[in-house]
From TrEMBL:
GO cellular component, one term: plasma membrane
Pfam families referenced in this protein's UniProt entry, alphabetically: Transp_cyt_pur
InterPro entries (alphabetical): CodB, Pur-cyt_permease, Pur-cyt_permease_Fcy2/21/22
Top-rank lineage group of the source organism: Bacteria
Source organism per UniProt: Pediococcus pentosaceus (strain ATCC 25745 / CCUG 21536 / LMG 10740 / 183-1w)
Localisation: Membrane
Bilayer topology term: Multi-pass membrane protein
Molecular function terms, GO-annotated: cytosine transmembrane transporter activity
Protein name: Purine-cytosine permease related protein
Keywords from the UniProt entry: Membrane, Transmembrane, Transmembrane helix, Transport
Transmembrane region(s): 103-126, 138-156, 168-185, 205-228, 240-265, 285-304, 325-344, 356-375, 396-416, 422-443
PANTHER family: CYTOSINE PERMEASE (PTHR30569:SF0), CYTOSINE TRANSPORTER CODB (PTHR30569)
Length: 454
């Protein structure tokens, strides 16, 4: 067989991730700075509106994580390698590019927030201005450099070091969330937070919150098989990611939501730009320990982000080793982290990034899940995924049906988001996923019948 497109499938005897490892990985993936910041953003829905959107969007999104996780443990290959079955061996470059850019983006988001914490630490020890004050960029730039070096060290140290980071990180993260919760509710009661009204000019529609959370949560779905291929049991590959990811997102988004509203009540001013963990922790007076834990949560989340981005790059350039791909993506992510420093606010950059993720990701996931479970009846041959003369070559390596429907989904999402009803009540993401999934199934059934007749 031509080895140019070869895919690595992990044999079951080499799979050593336990249920706890898988659970800790996905708690750690969501128990991070970005999740906290998301909680602060959806505070614009009010407390109960934010909670309702959080539960609904996260639960739906992580059902898809379970499905992709199941695909990973059954085949032993990465999510992007799995995308070859539905998009074609060459066509899978589209999901790979999307995955590479979004996980590089998430790495940059977490690195930026952690770097802000470093700027507070440098202010305490050296008197440097914190980020946001005149001259504060120096501390931020130093923070970006520190975090990027830590990421590179963890990659060079290998998979074992990542597992150690996750195991230690999850314990510290849980302690930190409890500590933060005590501080938040000590000065402002739960009843006050629940009754808080959003200033009308800053209010966010429920549908917009659904799309924001869907973009955040679905981003993890395309990393699912990258980890579940190291598990032996289906129950580990499905329930552990679902429970872990939900626990992480509920815990950290809840405290981000509550802390942002708490500060708005105590200060009398609600500013979404001040929803990042470092600023909130500083305003709550949590000190250096909080900043160090924020840095650690960045490492636990980015261990997953970098792994997924590296896998996507590896699928695009098979001559690279996985470690080389991971190092390259870390360097790229470091450069991307500087974008908010020179172009606009972090909130504006982050919101634009979420719009991109929501627009391009939903249709890909929908097509992949429908193809595996409904079209192929859970039967993918890992060897065929790398065979240019096999069933997944389609036409010149591209499955044009999947590619065109993906484009239709992107356009449809853009149009739906402009409708007031969608922004206010439903959001566009899950509607688009349902429609594209149904269209893909119908067209594939039609193509199958035509080929049988011929």
């Amino acid at each position: 067989m031509n080895t140019k497109y070869q895919v690595e499938s992990i044999d079951k005897k080499h799979r050593h991730m336990t249920y706890w490892d898988m659970f800790a990985t996905w708690v750690g993936a969501n128990a991070n700075n970005g999740t906290w910041f998301i909680g602060g953003i959806i505070a614009a829905c009010g407390f109960w509106g934010g909670i309702k959107a959080l539960i609904l969007a996260s639960s739906i999104s992580y059902i898809f994580l379970m499905l992709v996780g199941y695909m990973g443990t059954k085949t032993g290959v990465t999510t992007m390698a799995l995308s070859r079955a539905s998009f074609g061996i060459r066509g899978s470059i589209i999901p790979s590019i999307v995955n590479l850019t979004q996980f590089v983006g998430w790495t940059a988001v977490n690195t930026f927030i952690a770097a802000t914490s470093v700027s507070y630490i440098l202010h305490s020890f050296l008197g440097w201005p914190v980020y946001g004050q005149p001259g504060g960029n120096l501390g931020l730039i130093m923070g970006i450099a520190v975090m990027s070096i830590l990421h590179l060290i963890s990659i060079v140290s290998g998979q074992k070091s990542i597992q150690i980071i996750e195991r230690i990180g999850i314990i510290l993260v849980i302690i930190f969330v409890i500590w933060e919760s005590i501080v938040v509710f000590k000065d402002v009661s739960f009843n006050q937070i629940a009754a808080w009204k959003v200033p009308s000019h800053l209010k966010m529609g429920f549908g917009t919150a659904m799309d924001t959370l869907a973009a955040f949560n679905l981003a993890w779905v395309t990393a699912g098989a990258d980890f579940t291929r190291f598990t032996k049991k289906s129950v580990t590959a499905t329930t552990a990611p679902f429970l872990g990811a939900n626990l992480g997102v509920f815990g950290f988004a809840f405290i981000g939501l509550s802390a942002t509203i708490s500060i708005a009540i105590s200060s009398g001013v609600y500013d979404p730009n001040n929803s990042d963990p470092s600023t909130i922790a500083n305003r709550l007076g949590l000190g250096l320990i909080a900043m160090i834990v924020i840095m650690l949560t960045s490492m636990t989340a980015n261990a997953v982000n970098i792994q997924a981005a590296g896998s996507a790059l590896n699928n695009m350039f098979t001559k690279l080793t996985l470690k080389q791909s991971l190092l390259i993506t870390t360097v790229i992510a470091t450069l991307v982290t500087f974008i908010p420093v020179f172009y606009g606010s972090f909130l504006e950059t982050f919101t634009a990034f979420l719009d991109y993720v929501g627009m391009v990701l939903g249709p890909i996931i929908s097509i992949m899940v429908v193809d595996y479970f409904l079209i192929s009846k859970q039967k993918y041959d890992p060897m065929e995924l790398g065979n240019p003369n096999g069933r997944y070559w389609y036409k010149n390596g591209i499955h044009w049906t999947a590619f065109i429907l993906w484009l239709v989904g992107v356009i449809f999402y853009s149009l739906l988001q402009k409708l007031d009803f969608v922004q206010t009540y439903t959001g566009a993401t899950f509607i688009v996923m349902i429609i594209i999934g149904i269209l893909y199934w119908l067209i594939m059934q039609f193509e199958k019948r035509n080929s049988n007749v011929n």
